[in-house]
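Quick one:
INPUT:
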């Protein structure tokens, strides 16, 4: 059984804390590891590839509105502790930082599901301190370990107001590749659907072959053979002479 949705947690204190930690004097940096990369929905002055240590991208967060429903929960990414993650950082000019944070909170934190953290990100131009939305393993929205079969089921059936979980995963994978970011774990999950479809096609082909094996072979007429053609043997014989009628 899926866990219940996380109890509503007031996001306003967390927003106020993020604003205080930022300070408002310097430009605002944001770390994107999922949909923020391909759908940031805010203006930025600069974007760089970036990496963080001690955290990794994982498709292990329940979504019951955006990419799924209460009946069929979908999945979105969370940033879990452990490992490392490559993504993108966005620089927002300080003059627009406050408005950007407020709008971002409406998108990412309507129920306070994430734990916002300021992380040290490495970039080609040097380290930056960026805000990232992390996920606690104690959160009811954390899925825990999922089997390949469960991922297949979710990818096949889970759809929310922004589309399917499969589209979300595929779009993220494509955008990561566009920025030369390789995520082997995500690529394997997306490939599960293609593998399932191939297996289904193979099962259908095998079932068709088995059905064909149970049918008698169709008769074949060879021209010049003394045997009559199957079609002619089934027709009534007609006389070539005039018909004779009884008086």
């Amino acid at each position: 059984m899926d866990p219940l949705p996380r109890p509503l947690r007031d996001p306003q204190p967390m927003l106020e804390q993020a604003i205080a930690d930022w300070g408002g004097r310097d430009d605002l940096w944001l770390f994107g590891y999922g949909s923020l990369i391909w759908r940031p929905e805010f203006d930025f002055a600069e974007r760089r590839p970036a990496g963080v240590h001690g955290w990794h991208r994982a498709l292990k967060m329940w979504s019951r509105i955006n990419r799924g429903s209460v009946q069929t929960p979908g999945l979105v990414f969370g940033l879990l502790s452990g490992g490392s993650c490559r993504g993108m950082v966005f620089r927002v000019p300080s003059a627009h930082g406050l408005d950007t944070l407020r709008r971002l909170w409406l998108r990412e934190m309507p129920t306070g599901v994430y734990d916002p953290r300021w992380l040290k990100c490495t970039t080609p131009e040097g380290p930056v301190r960026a805000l990232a939305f992390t996920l606690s393993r104690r959160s009811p929205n954390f899925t825990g370990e999922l089997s390949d079969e469960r991922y297949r089921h979710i990818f096949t059936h889970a759809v929310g107001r922004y589309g399917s979980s499969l589209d979300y995963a595929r779009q993220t994978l494509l955008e990561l590749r566009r920025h030369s970011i390789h995520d082997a774990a995500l690529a394997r999950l997306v490939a599960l659907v293609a593998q399932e479809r191939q297996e289904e096609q193979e099962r259908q082909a095998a079932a068709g072959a088995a059905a064909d094996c149970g049918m008698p072979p169709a008769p074949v007429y060879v021209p010049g053979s003394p045997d009559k053609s199957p079609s002619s043997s089934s027709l009534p014989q007609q006389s070539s002479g005039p018909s004779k009628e009884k008086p």
